[in-house]
Amino acid sequence: MKFLKKYISKFYFQNFYERPSKRHRECLLKKWGKLKSTHSFYEKIEHHAQHLVNQGYTILPEYYKGSLLSDLKSDFESFACNQEADQYKQLYISKDNLENSKSLSEAVVDLHLMELVEYYFGKPFYLAELQGKRSYQAILPDYGNNMWHHDAKRKQVKIFILLTNVLPDGQHLDLIPKTHKIWHDFSSYEDTRFDNKKIKHIFDNYGDAVKCTGSAGTVIIFDTNMLHRANRNGSNRDVWVFNYTAGRSLFPIGKPHPDAVKNYSSKQKSIARV
């Protein structure tokens, strides 16, 4: 019976929940082709979309600049000043602050970023959860997200917006490309963490990890099913984190800022679950 449940679960996820619609993706490609001559972003969007599909991640250097980045950093700081770090020297900003930030409410449904996520899922999707996080420099043993792991939610897309510069020897995210396609068999949180023996087998088959770095304003998009880890080297790192899903693991997220909602399209309202 246990084997049968695992088989049914794998069949369902890989053949229905996780499978994108080719037609949906083709429609997006046609739309982008028409927009290449009018907007510079669409000259590279197909590259980012295919990299996300094939490698499991893509990086958009300095995507946010100027006043947009300034507003995201300012709102982050205003929320962070009322919070304290936990025992692991990390400070978390609640998703309840979404309605208090126009810039954050715009970023979670950013038109171009959402088109990349939509291409990846190949179907309608939704904002699952969000938070802000400040990670202070710390020397800590391997634990939790500092270990190689995949998230325990099957297929989800996560977006990091870097609010501070992240260097190769700093608090960067490590990813192992193409591991987003692995079917992980797990029944507990512990099963999603990989010790040295398990991760060596992965490296033998998939090659080296990639360091995700960049200047403030850089956006990192990846499938949380791929193997990844954090580290606590270097200066403090501030980041906004958004998770998207095709329907599973939806958590309460609150209402976006009313001034942002006024300009939402019907698709953005659906994504933000307004």
Walk me through the structure.
The chain is α+β, with helices and mostly antiparallel strands and 274 residues long. It has a single domain (18-271), classed as Jelly Rolls, CATH 2.60.120. The chain contains nine helices and eleven strands. The protein has helices at residues 2-17, 22-35, 45-55, 66-80, 102-107, 111-121, 196-206, 258-261, 266-271; strands at 57-60, 90-93, 126-135, 148-149, 157-162, 173-175, 193-194, 210-212, 219-223, 228-229, 237-245. The strands form three sheets. The chain has a six-stranded antiparallel β-sheet with strand order 1-9-5-11-3-2. Helix 3 crosses helix 6 (111-121). The longest helix has 16 residues, at 2-17.
Give a quick rundown of the structure.
With about 270 residues, the chain is α+β, with helices and mostly antiparallel strands.
